[in-house]
Each structure stands twice: as structure tokens, then as C-alpha cells.
Design a protein that fits this description.
Strand order of the largest sheet: 7-8-9-5-10
Order of helices and strands: EHEEEHHHHHHEEEEEEHEH
Oligomer: single chain
Distance between the termini: 34 Å
Shape: globular
Structural class: alpha+beta
Radius of gyration: 22 Å
Number of domains: 1
Length: about 325
């Protein structure tokens, strides 16, 4: 029987969500499924019950694993990844405040910190529910195809048993999904590979003094600037790709393909003011690519209302980005 603690397992860390809260506790939310806005605490959003829970019936010697079924939620994320994540987020927000108040121009992060942050962003990208669902769907498809091939082969070899082979039913067991998902976000080769693609880009930090950057339940957005490109590393390594990731309500990180966007090189690894048009565009993308919820520091949902109005009064949903 599952214990009652740690039922709500966040796919977006609370340390990140607090950067969009005026009091580090509550945050404004727009929910496109319910078509309404409201306020809630950061510990009650961006989670799925038992999301990282290991199915003990599928693991031998579960008692020998630290924290048992909660190994990934407790040991990997809470005790390891999110501590490092929080430290770097705090450093960036602190440097951003200094730049806003005094226009102090200092190094935002050391190269070593930047490399670590790129890996943490990559892990954040991989830990999302969308990635699990895509991976699960791919495994289901592979299972069915493999089953059909095997049944055809056996029927060919044993024609008299063809009917019996065709009646064999193979099903994918979704209980394995948390285990298969863990193999992705803990795969060092995979997340380092994604991080290295990010490190090849120009990192530009945009600043607003009004705490009006949006984020969402799907905050890492890949915006292509060249059509028909192969989605290398889920699009992150794609030529002409721009990666968009809000750091806080006042800081937004963008990463630009250095082989395509030479014009932005002079802004690399620095804070830059953002104009209203750019801000509207980036905030609009957070709503458009959100799976369900958009998160705000204040209660200003005018951009979302405008998008809905331009969409004939309908909420805007978009197909998830391919992995």
C-alpha cells in the first residue's frame, strides 16, 4: 500500500515555480481546460500523483533501494537535482536584480556553472509528462509491430497453426512507464548530449522590470526559424532553433543557434532589455504551448484573452513538440 506522504510529485520543481510568485507561496494561474483564472499555492500545481513512483511489484529487492518506491522522487530529484537547480536559479535572479537596480555588468555564471545548468535544463525537459507519454506510445507501437511480425513469421513456418498464432494477443503493460521514463532522465549520455546542443548556442537573458514574464506547465519551448528541419534532440539541436525558457517573472533565457543567428552574438551571456512586442510574443508562446496551465506573477491575463478572442473565442491548443 502506498504511503500518504509525497503523493503529489512535481514534474516542475517548486523552487522554479516560486520565481513566479509574489510571496514565494502563491501564484496566479490560467487554466485553458477550465477557461478560467485563479490563485493557488505552488505546492498544488504542476504535479501528478505518484508520477515518479516505482512499481514495487516489478522490482526485485525494492527494500534495498534508498527510499524504496520513491527513489527517483526523493533521491534523484529532491536530494540531488533540485538542490543544484535552486542554487543556480537563485544566482541568476540575484544577478538580474543587481543589473536592474544598478546596471552592474558581471559574469552571470562561470563556464562550469553554465555546463551544469544546461544539464539541469535537459533533465527538466526529459522529466516532463509529455516525454513519458511519447516514449510510452512509441513502445506500444513497437510492441504491436513486433508482435505482428512474430505472428507472421510463425504462421509462415507453421501454416497449420496460423489461426492459433493470429489469436495470440500481446498488450503493453503501462505499469512499466515510470521505469522506462527513469531510464531517459537519468541517462547521462542523453541529457549531456542535449546540454551540449544548448551550449553551442548564444545564451541571451531578457529582463523586464514589471515581473510580467509568463511560464507554464510546459515551460521549455523550441521555436524553429527554418522550415522542415530534422528534430535533432527533440528539436533542441535543430538548425535555426531558438530555445525559450523563462527563469523568473523578470528574467527569460533564450538560446539561439550560433550558426544561424550571428547577429545576436554581441548579446551572448548578458542581460538585455526586452521591448513590449518581444515580451508579448514570448508570453503568448507560453500560453499556446502550455498543456493546460499558464503561470503568472500578477493577475494580468490580457494577452491570453486577446489570443482567445482572435481564435473565435476558443482556447488555443497545439500539438506537442516531437521528441
Amino acid at each position: 500500500m502506498k504511503s500518504k506522504d509525497n503523493i503529489k510529485q512535481h514534474f516542475i520543481p517548486q523552487c522554479y515555480l516560486r520565481n513566479f510568485s509574489p510571496n514565494s507561496k502563491n501564484i496566479f494561474i490560467y487554466d485553458k481546460i477550465e477557461s478560467k483564472s485563479y490563485r493557488n499555492s505552488v505546492d498544488k500545481i504542476a504535479y501528478i500523483d505518484y508520477f515518479y513512483e516505482l512499481p514495487d511489484k516489478l522490482i526485485e529487492n525494492i527494500d534495498e533501494i534508498p527510499f524504496g518506491t520513491k527513489f527517483y522522487e526523493k533521491e534523484f530529484f529532491a536530494n540531488n537535482i533540485e538542490n543544484k537547480y535552486n542554487t543556480i536559479l537563485e544566482k541568476i535572479t540575484c544577478k538580474g536584480k543587481s543589473w536592474i537596480n544598478d546596471k552592474i555588468i558581471n559574469e552571470i555564471m562561470t563556464q562550469k556553472e553554465k555546463e551544469l545548468f544546461a544539464q539541469l535544463i535537459a533533465i527538466q525537459y526529459l522529466r516532463m509528462p509529455d516525454i513519458r507519454q511519447k516514449y510510452s506510445d512509441a513502445r506500444k507501437k513497437t510492441t504491436l509491430i513486433s508482435s505482428d511480425i512474430l505472428k507472421s513469421f510463425l504462421s509462415h513456418k507453421n501454416p497449420t497453426l496460423k489461426k492459433e498464432f493470429e489469436n495470440i494477443s500481446v498488450e503493453y503493460n503501462e505499469d512499466f512507464d515510470p521505469i522506462l521514463h527513469s531510464e531517459m532522465y537519468t541517462d547521462e549520455k542523453l541529457y549531456v548530449g542535449i546540454a551540449n546542443q544548448m551550449l553551442k548556442k548564444h545564451w541571451i537573458y531578457f529582463i523586464t522590470e514589471n515581473n510580467d514574464f509568463y511560464t507554464s506547465d510546459n515551460p521549455i519551448i523550441i521555436k524553429p526559424h527554418i522550415e522542415k528541419q530534422r528534430p535533432y534532440y527533440g528539436g533542441i539541436g535543430m538548425k535555426g532553433a531558438e530555445i525559450i525558457f523563462p527563469i523568473s517573472s523578470s528574467i527569460l533565457l533564450t538560446m539561439w543557434d550560433e550558426n544561424y543567428f550571428e547577429i545576436v552574438e554581441q548579446k551572448h551571456d548578458s542581460f538585455n532589455k526586452i521591448n513590449d512586442k518581444q515580451k508579448r510574443e514570448y508570453n503568448s508562446l507560453q500560453y499556446i504551448f502550455s498543456n493546460r496551465q499558464t503561470y503568472l506573477y500578477n493577475n494580468d491575463f490580457n494577452i491570453i484573452k486577446t489570443i482567445i478572442s482572435c481564435n473565435n473565442g476558443n482556447e488555443f491548443f497545439i500539438k506537442n513538440q516531437e521528441f
